[in-house]
Amino acid sequence: ESFSDGLARNLTLNSLALRRNQIGDQGFQMLLQAILVHASLTNLDLDFNSISCSRRQQFESLIARNQHNIE
């Protein structure tokens, strides 16, 4: 079982801190697919990872539409 699979099944998650985890674009894409099912997620910290600017902008657009908070 991968982290993103377990994350997708946790429907009560409201805050997730993944700061300094060396998450790149591929890991970000898997994470994104898992967290989009979380209407309860209000805080996500991805500071100091290796996510490209274009992926981060895409993510920020999705977050804004879903009313989530990104740091």
Which key phrases capture this entry?
single chain; 71 residues; three-stranded parallel sheet; 3 strands; globular
Low-confidence stretches: none
Radius of gyration: 11 Å
Number of helices, counting only DSSP H or I runs of 4 residues or more: 3
Number of DSSP strands?
A: 3
The coarse silhouette is globular
Strand line-up of the largest beta sheet: 1-2-3
Residues in helices, as a percent range: 40-55%
> What is the average per-residue confidence, as pLDDT, rounded to a whole number?
83
How widely separated are the two ends?
A: 27 Å
Can you walk me through this structure?
The chain has helices at residues 3-9, 25-35, 53-66, and strands spanning 15-17, 43-45, 69-70. It has a three-stranded parallel beta sheet with strand order 1-2-3, with helices on one face. The protein has three helices and three strands. Helix content is 45%, strand content 11%. Strand 1, helix 2 and strand 2 form a beta-alpha-beta unit. The chain is an alpha/beta fold and 71 residues long. Helix 1 packs parallel to helix 2.
